[in-house]
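G., before I forget:
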Amino acid sequence: MTRALQRQDFAGDAVDVARSLIGATLLVDGVGGLIVEAEAYDMTDAAAHTHRGPTERNRAMFGPPGHAYVYFNYGLHWCLNFVCRESGHGAGVLIRALQPTHGLDRMRQRRGLDDERLLCAGPGRVGQALGITKALYGLPLDEPPFVLRAPDATGAIEVIAGPRVGISKAQALPWRFGLAGSRYVSRRF
DNA sequence: AAGTAGATGTTCT
DNA sequence: GAACATCTACTTA
């Protein structure tokens, strides 16, 4: 059994937190898996929702670390982020892909798909598979329905980095992190 | 294998 | 009214 992540584990820089989350376990109501892809966003970064300061939508990102920031994207997809740094910094990590380990049946129901590899390979897919909605907005990550556990330390975790996906600004920053060799990432690095 | 179009609704200018 | 931290289905090869 690995260590449960505490709110303090999210107090660091978003880039550091994103890297350290690769290999961690994320469950929502018992459904989820290993985080194999995540991206960092920060107020100093033109691609971030928080770049222009606090708004109604991004309010949670300016709150305390270790909480959920959920947003509705392209009119279709719910995406899950973890708030980082101390309050006021507008930093966070977008969960982009999981290797499914828990509640595969539930994921298949919600996704209407059989292929394990496509259940959580992308932020919108993660949102659908885990049942992410506005109801989770601002909730702490160290309490139900969330379960977050540190990566299993028995195996070395090889993390690779690259440019983020689907943004039109700050494209050069290598703030996308992934588990090397994983077939569950949304795209190759 | 790679590229394009369409869906769909909230946020911000 | 444009942009948007995306996904799917469909085309072309």
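Chain A has one domain: 7-179. Helices of chain A lie at 14-21, 104-111, 123-130.

More on Monday.
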